[in-house]
Amino acid sequence: MKAPRRFQFDEARLRARAAEVTGGLTDFGGPEADWGFHKLVRRVERGQVREMPAFADGDLAERILVEWAATRLHFVNDEKLYPAILDERIERPVVAMGVARSGTTLLQSLLAADPANRGLRIWELRYPSPPPALRTPEEREAAIASAATHMRTNYERNRSRALEAHPYYDQGAMMLAECEWIWSSPAYLMGMRPEPVQRYAFHRRFLQHIQHGSPPRRWVLKGVSHQFQIGGVVATYPDAALVWIHRDPVKNVASYLAYQFDGPRRPPGDPIVEARKMVEQLHTDLNQAMAHPHLQRVHHVLYAALVADAIGTMRGVYERAGLPWTADAEAAIAAWVDDPANRGDRHGRHTYSLGDFGLAAAEVDELFAGYRQRFGIPYERA
Fold first, then answer.
1. What is the mean pLDDT of residues 9-37?
2. Has residue 17 been placed in a domain?
3. Least confident of 145-159, 284-298, 317-331, 357-371
4. Is the domain of 335 the same as that of 261?
5. Is residue 146 part of a domain?
6. Are residues 39 and 94 in the same domain?
7. Residue 20: inside a domain, yes or no?
8. DSSP string, 94-116
9. Tens digit of each residue's pLDDT (9 = 90 or more) over 223-261
10. Are 291 and 273 in contact, with CB atoms under 8 Å apart?
11. What's the pTM?
12. Of the candidates 30, 59, 81, which is a domain's last residue?
């Protein structure tokens, strides 16, 4: 059964308002994108877009929909104004992956510390047009400030313990973005849900936009679903270095569930029932990922090893990927590790318990025994 509508919008009016604020732009990029906007509007009407705030009234929802439509229109128009965008080469990206709450952000942050690398920042994700390198310093600062306000408002509203669970939020608009957020961005129009290869084609297109006009540097990317879509990653980036980080599944699952059920955006229904469904789905997904033929291309990193010896572990990542391990890279990564501003507990310790979701450690350990054994994942101390 479809959820009842909370609001109802005139789609033609939304598009007309978006055209007005963009100076007459109307091209969303073809029939698929038109359909995507239609689906997005319907989902917002029913309150089914978790990435957007819980709207108090239809006027706010309409303003945000117009803003998203305008972002998409500008994004598409950029390729007409600057056709060389689509000639940009995304070469040898490093794609970090792993189950949510397993240390993927730590891994990406260490990679991004190397001055030869670059990551995607929140402000670039939210305001991709025009390409960042083509903006004036004033335009850049305005975009960063606006994205920072959005970040602060969104996470204060939707996470009661956001900084404890994910201290990187304190970086505001300069925080590194997950790849999944590309597919929930205004430029993508969230109604579009094509196959993985098509999703990754847009992923590449988005990076081309952000990269255009900038000095070439190696992209370091991270996502919590790449390990489940390795075929799409490899088809899009055949020269990518793939790195999968693994954490003790007992700790990983407990942290993941605590994060998912924190705040008003928590899944509906009985937490114990829903949590068990999530854990069972994760087990199924991991088994499928471990059977994927491209798994042999992936370099595997242990969270415990990364925490204990960041430099040695990162040197191993570079060696496996065939990337140069330079003195500059080592010094920058060491400086990042030594900086108290990067401590994982700088806003307090994130506490969680499987018991809150009717699960026992022994039960989770048994369920994920094959995964632990496959990658030699050690147990973490309490």
1. 94
2. yes
3. 145-159
4. yes
5. no
6. no
7. yes
8. EEEE-STTSSHHHHHHHHHHSTT
9. 999 999 999 999 999 999 999 999 999 999 999 998 888
10. no
11. 0.92
12. 81
